[in-house]
Specification:
heterodimer; A: about 375 residues; mainly alpha; Serine Threonine Protein Phosphatase 5, Tetratricopeptide repeat; 21 helices; about 0% strand; globular; B: about 375 residues; alpha+beta; 4-stranded antiparallel beta sheet
Chain lengths: ~375, ~375
């Protein structure tokens, strides 16, 4: 039924709404995410011009693609990933410079083509064994795949090439997911103290991770301190906002989520959290925002893509009240992505749908990883 | 560290926080004329040809209008339509704007001038934005006199061949009938309402007591009256809602449907109404019709085949309903004198139905999840 609904959505008005003629020339139709004077845009324009002059220049192409990729991450806008792919078009094969291979791996993992992405990173490392970025991305993908031993090996291989904070961060991240949260927290916060001059980006990452660890350890005030330290850095970051919003929602502070996210409706991940908070507060916007999310998932389905199943499962569970549908999507997602939040949505959906059997793979993961989270243990106990 | 930060934060971040770039291309191909509507995101046009003339980060209708000719030339040069192998000339006809879930789109309506008077197949070749953004997709919909088919155009597959031959009306009709049958079978609230009203059909009410009916004929006409009233009532509101004459908030509709099940079931335990159950079926049937209408709306109604869809869906619902009655009635009639039927099925079954429906009622009315 659902599938039929999606297929026929093309004929429904949600996607093909009624076109109109604006009455006034000064009517603003669209606000662009950045203005022309923006320094990031200026840099991108320069790089684009340089690449247009010599499209086979690998260094420029890789640099432009990485700038676009960073922008996609910060703003949560996949269009930039498309622009990045265009820059790499002259190098379709595996016979390419390390930087091109690495960048292509980035874009491939973004599309959840983890197998090809991993191969690209591996080839980049063969050409350039000290390629720290390729190494950390391999660690990150092993983490997503819940292969913690392999992730730890990649982190260890960073030694001698990467900074101490990077290596420690990498290892602490693995530890914190495998039952040694307290030790990981202590190690990472000590490392941060030793590097007071670390870049804003490095601090952002470290503070966010420390916040998550403190949260899992049940120390909400400590988590709060790390989150606000990260927010004070003033770096636009979709991931930090999502993590902090999740924290606030669990702390039953939906009002602050609305304040935090009200200007972020463009981002699906953040719109999801905003709608959940608005629903909790019974605000009138909840309905429109829920509907907008539904339309975006339907629009993605029209492309034949399902890259945000974790969010879709949350949407079905928390906003639509359809636990069975949510569970199915959450389990599909789990086949690809095995991060703690992917596990949690399976458990929550299984509990709501009263289907403990379906949650078996995640319960097994929880046992084997020894992941420490009060909340997850509670849901898991209710399922056993 | 930039890498670690990016890597360990974002491999894990949800892939698509926004929608990627899509355009929506609709072709109207009836075998004789060919025209189209193309919705292209302003964001994409800004990147490709630049619309924001004053560079203030906002695109106005005036700025779009000033670039209209350029937009037409850019887009139409990247779309080729061929009917039975020969190229059509694309001429812009009308310029509008539309809001999709991810922002504003320029809407370009165009006519295709084709060499032949009539044709059997259309070939679409699409290249818009593929050079700038290989993740761009053209979402194609072809309307063949009311029957639609869809496709996705990508750099890997930029060409699609579409037969201008519509599926027959009969095939489309059959599809809606199937959906109707399917919906009554998965719509537990409708089934439970009907069953609650049917359970006492094999009895007559004497001094507020259920007494088994003597003649199958009486039972049959009783069921006939109840089922027909329910059908007539929900057909009326289903049609009115599908034609957008009336619309009610879904929470009200869903809550009232749950209430109708509660009342119908309780009536079997403490009988108030018997002979006039058809009136109850009619009254609440009106509300159930709105419930069906929301499903039909989700399926998407073809604008030029509205009647066909409506009648098909309705007939499907009736057929599903009749199938339930056909199974229920002989069994109930045969068992009507047994204590099993009266105690367990009529009293126990009704109590169970009432309990389930009360949970639904609480959930739907208060917008909470209990179960």
């Amino acid at each position: 039924m659902r599938r039929f609904g999606v297929a026929l959505l093309l004929t429904a008005t949600a996607v093909w709404a009624a076109p109109y003629t604006p009455s006034d020339d000064s009517a603003v139709l669209e606000r662009l995410p950045t203005r022309r004077g923006d320094p990031v845009m200026a840099e991108l324009r320069q790089l684009r011009a340089a690449l247009a002059a010599s499209p086979k220049d690998a260094a420029t192409a890789a640099q432009l693609a990485q700038r676009y990729f960073d922008l996609a991450m910060a703003e949560g806008d996949p269009r930039y990933v498309g622009y990045a792919e265009a820059a790499l078009r002259p190098w379709p094969g595996d016979d390419a410079p390390a930087e091109i291979l690495f960048t292509r791996g980035l874009l491939r993992q973004y599309r959840h083509d983890f197998a090809s992405g991993m191969k690209d990173f591996e080839r980049a490392l063969q050409r350039e064994p000290g390629h720290v970025d390729a190494r950390t991305w391999r660690a990150a993908i092993f983490m997503v795949q819940a292969d913690y031993a392999a992730a730890a090996r990649e982190c260890a291989a960073l030694q001698g090439y990467a900074s101490e904070l990077t290596t420690t961060g990498c290892l602490a991240y693995v530890e914190a997911t495998t039952g040694k949260t307290r030790a990981a927290y202590d190690r990472l916060s000590a490392a941060l103290m030793r590097h007071p001059n670390a870049s804003a980006g490095a601090r952002l990452w470290t503070e966010t991770r420390l916040a998550e660890m403190a949260w899992r350890l049940g120390d909400a005030p400590l988590a709060e301190r790390h989150f606000s330290a990260a927010l004070k850095l003033g770096v636009t970051d979709n991931f930090l906002l999502a993590a902090y919003a999740d924290f606030l929602l669990e702390q039953k502070r939906p009002k602050e989520v609305v304040t935090l996210l009200q200007d972020w409706v463009r981002s699906d991940t953040l719109l999801l959290r905003l709608a959940i908070a608005e629903r909790a507060l019974k605000l009138p916007d909840a309905r429109a925002h829920t509907q907008a999310l539904g339309e975006r998932f339907a629009a993605a389905a029209l492309r034949g893509e399902r890259l945000h199943m974790g969010e879709e499962a949350r949407y079905l569970l928390d906003l639509k009240g359809e636990p069975r549908a949510a569970l199915a999507v959450a389990l599909d997602n789990w086949k690809e992505q095995r991060e703690p939040r992917d596990a949690l949505v399976v458990l929550d959906a299984a509990a709501a749908a009263k289907d403990a059997k379906a949650a078996a793979p995640v319960l097994r993961w929880l046992e084997e990883s020894r992941f420490e989270s009060e909340r997850m243990r509670r849901v898991a106990a209710s399922l056993r | 560290m930039r890498a670690l930060l990016a890597a360990l934060l974002f491999a894990v971040a949800p892939a698509h926080a926004h929608k990627p770039s899509d355009s929506y291309l609709t072709l109207f191909a009836d075998g004789h004329t060919l025209r189209g509507q193309w919705d292209i995101a302003l964001r994409d046009l800004e990147y490709a040809i630049g619309l924001d003339a004053d560079g203030n980060g906002a695109i106005t209708w005036g700025e779009l209008k000033a670039k209209q000719a350029e937009v037409d030339a850019y887009a139409l040069a990247r779309l080729a339509l061929r009917v039975d192998g020969s190229e059509c000339r694309l001429e812009p006809a009308e310029h509008l704007v539309d809001d999709h879930s991810d922002g504003a789109y320029a809407v370009l309506r165009f006519a295709a001038r084709c060499p032949s008077e009539s044709y059997h197949a259309v070939e679409v070749e699409y290249r818009l934005f593929f050079d700038l953004d290989p993740t761009h997709r053209g979402l194609l919909r072809v309307d063949r006199g009311g029957d639609t088919t869809t496709g996705i155009l990508s750099p890997e597959r930029p060409k699609l061949d579409i037969s201008a031959q519509a599926r027959s009306k009969l095939q489309q009709f059959a599809e809606y009938v199937r959906e109707g049958v399917w919906h009554i079978w998965i719509g537990f609230d409708h089934i439970l309402f009907l069953v609650s009203l049917l359970l006492p059909s094999v009895f007559v009410l004497i001094n507020r007591e259920w007494v088994p009916a003597h003649r199958f004929r009486d039972t049959f006409w009783d069921v006939f009256r109840v089922a027909t009233s329910f059908t007539v009532a929900h057909s009326i509101t289903l049609s009115l809602a599908a034609l957008s004459v009336i619309s009610l908030p879904s929470r009200l509709v869903e809550s009232t449907i749950a209430l109708s099940v509660v009342l119908a079931a309780l009536n079997n335990i403490w009988p108030l109404v018997h002979a006039r159950r058809w009136a109850v079926a009619f009254g609440f049937g009106l509300i159930h019709g709105f419930g069906f209408a929301s499903v039909l709306a989700d399926l998407g109604l073809p604008r030029d085949a509205l009647l066909l869809a409506l009648v098909g869906f309705n007939l499907g619902v009736e057929a599903g309903q009749l199938a339930i009655i056909a199974v229920f009635l002989p069994l109930a009639y045969a068992a009507r004198r047994s204590a099993f039927y009266r105690r367990l099925v009529l009293a126990g079954g009704s109590a169970l139905i009432a309990a389930i429906a009360m949970v639904w009622l609480a959930e739907r009315a208060l917008d909470v999840k209990l179960y």
